[in-house]
Amino acid sequence: MRGRSGILTASWLVLLTALQILAFVVVWRFAVGTEHGQVLDTIALTGISIGQHRIEGVVGGVLNAVSLLSLLVATGVIGFIALIRVRITLAVVTVLLIVGANLSTQALKYVIERPDFAVDEARAAAGNSLPSGHTAVAASVAIALVMVLPPRVRGWGALIGAGYAAAAGVATLSAGWHRPSDAVAALLVVGAWASAASLVLLLTQRETAQVAAADGNRQATAVLAVVGLALLLVAAIALGWTDGIRSTPISEFDRRQLLIAYGGGAAGIAGTAALVTALVLVALHRVVPRYTGRGVTGPAD
């Protein structure tokens, strides 16, 4: 795909990559680098004490499924799906997406320093935990899988993948492993890698490749975008409400206050997962077209 449509798609992917990197920096600087941000994160994390014992089994099951072994197996499966569709470049790029997103997440975690504002003394010794490695594993696998799926099942794959990434991110919060900002930051890292990978696929596309508008998965994209924005609005309202009472010592917060803070953090994670997936899906039918242009105009699926 070349011409005006190709230029517009490439510009969109460059802009999307830049915006997600910028969003990551904003989350990092506020949530980690300021006392204000650390207080809000800590209040939301403290909210897990409400009913945590009731969901331990579910949370443990989700987190146990996110391991190095599962990452390696999933990466192999994703590469295999691309290869059986005779998409060698797609196989290479999606594997690099998974590897790059997870390696950069781990590198950032060690590079970023967390100032001690005496906000969360119980976890002060642990140091920085942003971005979340478990969330990055789940999100990178989910998005890479969406990219290699044939168009006819891509929309369903996106809905399931976004749900899986959201569940993993919220589970890290519910288990007390990560603050809300850690999971949100991880999703933004994966999103930036996904849009950059999409740009590479677009630039290496055959000139004769043909895009089918019917492969746009508009309904799935719209559902993910609407759900994502709605959840982020809920998160913003909860964050604003919690911000108004942040001067109150956390030990004096009642159940309702902690629940609102925790719920807002969880909504922010889930909303980011849905929106990042929707943004990937917007141009995916142009980035990975059904018609590859290998000398004929028949479908490659």
Question: Explain this structure to me?
Answer:
By secondary structure, the chain is mainly alpha-helical. It has helices at 3-31, 35-46, 56-64, 68-84, 88-111, 133-148, 151-174, 180-203, 218-243, 255-282, 284-287. The chain has one domain (3-287). The chain is elongated and about 65 Å long. Residues 90-198 form the Phosphatidic acid phosphatase type 2/haloperoxidase domain. It holds the Pfam family PAP2. Keywords: Membrane, Transmembrane, Transmembrane helix.
Structural key phrases:
transmembrane helix, 11 helices, disordered C terminus, PAP2/HPO_sf, PAP2/HPO, membrane, 301 residues, 71% helix, mainly alpha, single chain
User: Kindly, what is the distance between the CA atoms of the first and last residues, rounded to a whole number of angstroms?
Assistant: 18 Å
Average pLDDT score: 90
Give the low-confidence spans: 295-301
| Helicity level | over 70%
Q: How many individual domains?
A: 1
Calculate Rg over CA atoms: 20 Å
Portion in beta strands? under 5%
Overall form: elongated
Biggest pleated-sheet summary:
none
Tally of contiguous helical segments = 11
Broad structural category: mainly alpha
Order of helices and strands: HHHHHHHHHHH
Oligomer: single chain
Q: State the total count of DSSP E strands.
A: 0
Keywords: Membrane, Transmembrane, Transmembrane helix
Protein name: Phosphatidic acid phosphatase type 2/haloperoxidase domain-containing protein
Domain Phosphatidic acid phosphatase type 2/haloperoxidase: 90-198
Transmembrane segments: 12-31, 62-83, 90-112, 132-149, 156-177, 183-203, 223-241, 261-284
